[in-house]
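can u pls check wat happens w/ flavin-adenine dinucleotide
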Amino acid sequence: METLSADVAIIGAGPAGMFAVFECGMLKLSCVLIDALDELGGQCVALYPEKPIYDIPAHPAIEGGALIARLEEQIAPFDCPKLLGRQVTGLSGRAGDFTLATSAGDAIKAKTVLLAAGAGAFGPNRPPLEGLAAYEASGAVRYYVRKREDLRGKRVVIAGGGDSAVDWALALQGIAASIAVVHRRPKFRAAPESSAQLDALAAAGKVEMAIPYQLHALHGAGGKLEAVEVADLDGATKKLGADVLLPFFGLAMDLGPIAEWGLDLAQGRVTVDPATMQSSLPGLFAVGDIAAYPGKLKLILQGFAEGAVAAHAAYGVVNPDKALHFEYSTTKGVPG
Ligand code: FAD
């Protein structure tokens, strides 16, 4: 339990929130960074640490985990306290004098709030299967793959029809002992080249395609999975031998307590003025995936730029009597 005060409380330590620490730090605004997850990095670390990202400027390819490690290095000089493993549950006060409450009982005083909460407290859409919890607890059913190596030698069943299902079927080639893909329809909602690669692997007998099938039941005991039973549209069933099931049915986006703070929302995201990234609540800014405005792209690079805009606008709230003189980082340098 912490009692802290800062110029800017940043809610969410995904790439947008992390880079906002840098941008605020360059303007000499003190920050505190809070995240519900136990580690920094948001979606990049929780969902795709080993996948290369190709559209980060000046990085032709960089894995999700590596990008976050570089951001951590970039914000290190600013000594920003990081409160991890706790959700921000409450917000009270006004511009210049906000108080945030967390699930760990912290009280954080901040002059401004920068919301970088992505999709909110995100969690996977779970398949409605009997006994699921025991298999989730043992890791036999998992929604994220942290390291491919964890699945070496395992019989893996992948369920879903989007990019994640197809990408993991490709990425586990040569690692998993066997791979089966379960999908309701013959067509996948995935990048055409990836779908074509999957078709080629299926034709070569390297991936078993269970199509059109849906998950029906899990078989095993004590959390140890032995088979996944699937059913076709007529109810006919078959069993696929499995040690691990990876259901990829997308993320449930739940803003959680943020939805109760009286902010203007559009489709579950916080509407902002893109000139300042300020929300309908003065002194509260939103950046990254959670921000909504015309032309918004949910891309990391846009979240980075929004952090710079929000930091400059927050400066005016923290220092109402001081003019901000714009300077390049090449002129200012970084601390220490
Ligand atoms: P997030 O990364 O979602 O982080 C938000 C953080 O806020 C989370 O850690 C969450 O725990 C925390 N949080 C939420 N609510 C609270 C609360 N109340 N209290 C405390 N903490 C809270 N983008 C690209 O630009 N290029 C790509 O190639 C690319 N590939 C992708 C591949 C996949 C499989 C996925 C899933 C996404 C991909 N993206 C890509 C999208 C990119 O990851 C997101 O745009 C980016 O992560 C958004 O960053 P963010 O910081 O806004 O939010």
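The pocket of flavin-adenine dinucleotide is lined by residues 11-17, 34-37, 42-44, 47-48, 53, 55, 87-88, 116-121, 164, 256-258, 288-289, 298-301, 303 (CB under 6 Å).
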